[in-house]
Amino acid sequence: MKTEKHDKILLAHGGGGQLSDELIRHTIQPKLKNDILAELGDSANLNLTSNSVCFTTDSYVVKPLFFNGGDIGKLAVCGTVNDLAVAGAKPIALSLALIIETGFKFELLEKILDGISRAAKENDVNIVTGDTKTVEAGAVDKIFINTAGIGERLAGVDLGFDKIAVGDKIIISGTIGDHGMTIISQREGLKFQSQLKSDCAGLAKLTCQLLQNNSGVKFMRDPTRGGLAATLNEISRATGLSIEINEAKIPVNPAVQAVADMLGFDVLNIANEGKFAAVVSPESADNCLNICKNNRLGKQAGIIGEIIETCDVPVVEIKTRIGGRRIVQMPYGSQLPRIC
Amino acid sequence: MLERIYKAQLLCDTACKTLGRQINIMEVCGTHTVSIFRNGIRSTLPKKLKLLSGPGCPVCVTDTGYIDTVLQLAGRDDCLIATYGDMIRVPGKGGSLETKQPSDNIRIVLSSEDALQLARDNPQKTVVFVAVGFETTAPATAVAVKEAAAGAVDNFCILSGHKLVVPAMRALLAEKNHNIDAFLCPGHVSVIIGYGAFAGIVERFGRPCVVAGFEPMQIIEGLAEICRQLAEGIAELKSIYTAVVTEQGNTTAQEIIDECFEPADGYWRGLGRIEKSTLKLKDKFSQFDALKRFDITETPGEDVSGCRCGEVLCGLIEPPECELFGESCTPQAPVGPCMVSSEGACAAWFKYGRKRKRA
Predict the structure, then answer these.
(1) A59 is in which domain, residue-wise?
(2) What pLDDT, on the 0 to 100 scale, is given for residue A38?
(3) Of A184, A200, B105, B328, which is most buried with the most CB atoms under 10 A?
(4) Residue A338's pLDDT is what?
(5) Do B43 and A189 touch (CB under 8 A)?
């Protein structure tokens, strides 16, 4: 058994031979048990009931691998689940590809696989196919993960930028900035204690609930990199319409705000991993909000603004707490910590 | 809160009407600049009240000559450069630390202590700490130098780019063409130097100086206090940041600065040479002075062609008046230093202040 002989990943674990086989059969497969994966075929066989299928992929390279509220494994499942969820789909199956550097501890790999397994169960989705590659130490930063996902679009659901109209309301499903600020505050070199916790979570159950009980949802997106600012600017650019949001209505965890202020970050630009922004018709907004608030992952949801006519060029504008106004720009790359 | 805002707005309105002309108030601190934009404070003020963003971002006022010296040291095999993150993109004549290749001897640190630790961890190299900042960061640099001296960390030294706020404010007011009616004085710096440090400016130049914190209400009420004084035709020194700023400031921090540093004439980007406006290490710490250790004479840099950061820092123009702004100079590819730091006036304008274009 590999665990008696090796406590670290060797190049041979990705070489297609005996060690590869042991890694898959004894370490990976037991954690991700399901009938389709058990076949270990070159492809997974899926029987879908719908011919309206959503398909997505994403790669995960987060540092640190383990953070308060999650790990790279949980993130790799939830991130892909969320991409399907906001497209109006129910996630069915995921693929899992691991690229691991030699010397990586089995103990950590198993912890990551546990994170993957738990997240998959929570989101009612199976890992049905996968791949493992090993590379020389330093060729990747410990471990990189890619997941792809297939989901079935819910019947009657038709989301898109083209549905959005003036007067539509914007809902955010909870506090913003939690994931990004947690990662930044746990990065090497930032030696302060904080209580921050990533919001990393799969949203499919909540989005399915929302879409099945409300026909007023027109568009959804998960504001990951670039944060809410990027998502709202994308909506504005794509529709040619402007957006007005109200700062006082945007839910922000005070600890997240404090760390963001201290490091000079704007929470609107910070990544989320368990939130969606939805554009909904004005008459459905209250009902949508109630559905969100009745779900564990949407308790702090809020209606934060609306779609408005464009005067000259489409802009996202925020009304600040003191009654001032400013434009919310598309974030322009990484922000640097300030020095005084 | 609304009531306080209305009261403040009324004072601003009254001042504009009483003076019957545009009022120019300079916020000296970069954190004020960002807070003013982020909270949309300009949009709540009377049109005739203009806020000028002053030389209060340490990155922005760093002379190109200093950057070129850092780059020169970064080119040495025996040196490790330890710098705050903001500095790596500041362009000098020969590029920036970000574009320099190879870049494996440049490390981003978050404090002077991290730089000192880097020296302890790399005894075979000399660690040069790129020490920039006003009176807020100077005490931390001084502590690191003292620790290095006490612990015999001989492979540590600093390239001091530390600057003093008050001499720069004096230099601005000594310019013939200045149009500054009053200063909203920096909050963080005042915690160290005390609001009493601005008394000379009020007395000699007759300009109101009000210290405020960074919350939007603090800024609005600070501006209102300035307007009250202007409307009454008086100039006073006042702090409304009473929670953390005293008249004397943090005397312990001041003593540490005095123990390690002495004021020296120095160069500011856009403002030129200002008498006794920078901090250089005292002779007893000269072994930790990178200039002396490597026998370098710092020469003033030339400002980049077309870049008007100097005029922005003096409050003579607003960033969009510069032809490079938002065209060849953006936060991704900054030409001038005011576009580099998140607290730079140009970066703040770019991020928060760009207006919708009129046809």
Answers:
(1) 2-153
(2) 79
(3) A200
(4) 30
(5) no
Cβ B354–A327 below 8 Å, yes or no?
A: yes
Q: What is the ipTM of this complex?
A: 0.73
Is residue A198 included in any domain, yes or no? yes
**Average per-residue pLDDT in chain B?**
90
Mean pLDDT confidence for B2-25: 92
Cα–Cα separations (whole angstroms), residue A136 to A8, A13, A18, A73, A164: 13, 12, 19, 21, 49
pLDDT tens-digit readout, B289-301: 999 999 998 888 7
The domain boundary residue, chosen from A153, A172, A199: A153
Q: Is the pLDDT of residue B117 over 90?
A: yes
Closest residue in chain B to residue A329, using alpha carbons only? B351
All residue ranges of chain A with pLDDT < 70 are 1-5, 188-193, 333-340
| Boundary (domain end) residue, out of A133, A153, A173 | A153
Which residues does chain B have within 8 Å of residue A311's beta carbon, measured at their own beta carbons? 356
Residue A335: per-residue pLDDT: 52
**Burial class, A36, CB count within 10 angstroms (exposed 0-12 / middle 13-18 / buried 19+):** middle
- Structurally, chain A folds into a number of domains equal to 2
Q: Which residues contact B295 (CB under 8 A, 6 or more apart)?
A: none
Do the chains contact at B330 and A336, CB–CB below 8 Å?
no
Mean pLDDT, residues B207-217: 95
User: Is residue A339 included in any domain, yes or no?
Assistant: no
Do A321 and B359 make contact, defined as CB atoms within 8 angstroms?
no
A171 and A148 belong to one structural domain: no
Quick one: A48 and A19 in the same domain? yes
Å between A169 CA and nearest CA of chain B: 22
What are the φ and ψ backbone dihedral angles of B159, each rounded to 5 degrees? Answer: -110, 100
Domains in chain B (CATH in brackets) are 1-351 (3.40.50.11740)
Of A191, A332, A339, the CB nearest to B84: A339
Tell me: the pLDDT tens digits for B331-346? 878 888 788 877 788 8
A177, A272: one domain? yes
